[in-house]
Specification:
single chain; 294 residues; alpha/beta; Rossmann fold; UDP-galactose 4-epimerase, domain 1; 2 domains; seven-stranded parallel sheet
Amino acid sequence: MAIGLLGATGLVGGGVGAALQGPVIALGRGVSAERSLDLANVESMTSSVWADIDCLVHCAGVTDEEVQADAEAAYHRASYAMTRLVDSAHRAGVTRFVYVSSAHVYGPLEGRIDETKPVDPRTDYAIAHSASEQIFRRAALRDGVEALIVRPCAVYGFPSNLARFRRFGLIPFGFPKMAAEQGRIALRSRGDQVRNFVSTAMIGRRIAAFLSGASEAGRCLVENALGPDDLSVVDFANLCCERYRQLTGAACKVTQGEGEAAAKPFFYCSLRDNRDKPSELVPFLDEIITRLRS
């Protein structure tokens, strides 16, 4: 099976691409792309892009940073351009689709959340991902393709180009950066919100397992991609400081915000995935802290 991969140089796509089995063709507009495809330009979505491709793995959904910078462009890419992308691929013979979405489509990350919980997106970022999911679901129902929608929570993984990485607003990256550069981590809140931390490699292995199985026309599956680590924000900050101390011998302090109500309990779970896998969190933190200090 030949796989077309969107977002191969991005945070998620890099880890996913390394885990995929079979020929992988990088699609995009950068110099590393094997075939040119601009998600912001529907005219680039020609049939020649999809030659010999059986499956599309889409790891280039809009980011929160992109929504904040230009919400109109982000919404256009997540809806109209996504429709054109999926239709173009289907007409060219692509029969299997994978889309990496976000846990935020469920709305507030509170209570027990598995795939049976209805979506309730509240932010522009979550609404954009929810719209993209619906386009893949429609393609399964209307056109008979098979689709997998993957919803991770807190994603970590080593970026392909750390010098050009611009997503340090994400907790798995911002906290080790503060530890490496300042020797302290300042939280904006109490930090008792719990998150499930999953590596890009784990997401990639789940996608590879799906693609290695028998296909089923007209099926749209949803999977909450799980990691083995459920940590509160403050516990994750303390882990970053502990790794910093182990690596450098220097002190690292966590300060918490004050005056907020306690976060509601949250448990991210799945009917399809489980936590029975080794953690990759400490090796990730050691590598990124070391690289950021060099």
